Amino acid sequence: MALYVRSSIQSSVWTYSADNRTYELHWVRVGSTFIAALYHPPVPKYNQNDLLDYIEACVEELSRDFPTAPIVIAGDLNQLPDHDIVERTGPTHIVHQPTRGVNILDRILISDPQLYSNVRVVASVVKSDHKAIVLYADKLQCPQLKKTALQRTFRLITPTQHAMFLQHITVTEENNLQLFNNSSQSWSDTQTEFDSFYKTALSLLNQFYPERTITVTSPDPQFITPEIKAKLRRKNRLIICMLVELRKLERWLNA
Predict the structure, then answer these.
(1) Are 224 and 152 in contact, with CB atoms under 8 Å apart?
(2) N or C, fewer C-beta in 10 Å, the chain?
(3) Is 3.40.50.2000 the CATH number for 11-140?
(4) What is the structure's pLDDT at 242?
(5) Nearest-angstrom CA–CA distance, 110 and 133
(6) Along the chain (255 residues), what's the average pLDDT of each consecutive run of 10 residues?
(7) For helices 82-89 and 48-65, what crossing angle results, to 10°?
């Protein structure tokens, strides 16, 4: 069990004075709020009442040391009954939609019912049969960000381009070597020779690995580079072509 907190938000780990690593319960103080990430497995190695006693003791210590701090308990609780936690610690259960199949396994309990006024159960962005829970207060409603597009330049690199470049450079190297052996020119001007080399190298780069442009939008994840997006677009085009050919074949078979 883990909690991810954005680096721009002040946070710190809080540890119960009688910490017990038997239970998968992790506390983090985020601003003035204490958030607990809890995982209760379907077949635990501990007694369920012992876990409830432990949660109750943690909440009592927090309430004593930080009497005004809001407390949030969230996680995959599986078969752990909500009413047992509510009876012992007094939080309010705010998730009322199924999070896995028809079951509400992922739950959030808060000490202040006014802390979050908007709760959404949405499809997870990662591969999981559990849904994600998004909650926020009215004053922190998610802004509707305008989609922006940016033209990015990149050089496509393929094995075919490599082969063509190597074939060309082999012939060019033999011609240049013969020219060098027959030349009596003095190679004293380093800057001129470097400029000539740079011009030739750049010409070869543009000839065999020409620059291309592609549009990258703000919703694209950071790991989607221009090269990756170009390959994804090529994959989509090939899929469309394959579907078109399959439909042609289907019409021909049905004729």
Answers:
(1) no
(2) C
(3) no
(4) 92
(5) 14
(6) 83 89 89 88 87 90 89 86 82 82 84 80 80 74 68 89 87 61 58 84 90 86 86 90 90 86
(7) 40
Q: Which of 120, 121, 118, 208 is nearest to 166 (CA)?
A: 208
User: Could you tell me the two tokens for 35?
Assistant: 């958030």
Instruction: Specify the DSSP class assigned to residue 118.
Output: E
Residue 27's SS3 state is strand
> Cβ(109)–Cβ(75) under 8 Å?
no
Closest CA to 162 of 227, 212, 208, 231: 208
Contacts of 98 (CB under 8 A, 6+ apart): 104, 121, 131
In whole angstroms, give the CA distance from residue 91 to residue 108. 9
Beta strand 211-217 pairing with 149-155: antiparallel
Residues whose CB falls within 8 Å of the CB of residue 5, separated by 6 or more in sequence, listed in order = 11, 28, 30
**CA neighbours closer than 13 Å in the CB half-sphere of residue 97:** 12
Range 33-60 burial, b when 16+ CB lie within 10 A, else e: bbbbbbebeeebeeeeeebbebbbbbbe
One-letter amino acid of 108: I
C-beta separation of 132 from 123 below 8 A: yes
Q: Where are the alpha helices (DSSP H) in 100-225?
A: 159-182, 190-208
Structure-token pair, residue 222:
């950071």
Q: Where are the domains of the chain?
A: 11-140, 149-168+196-254
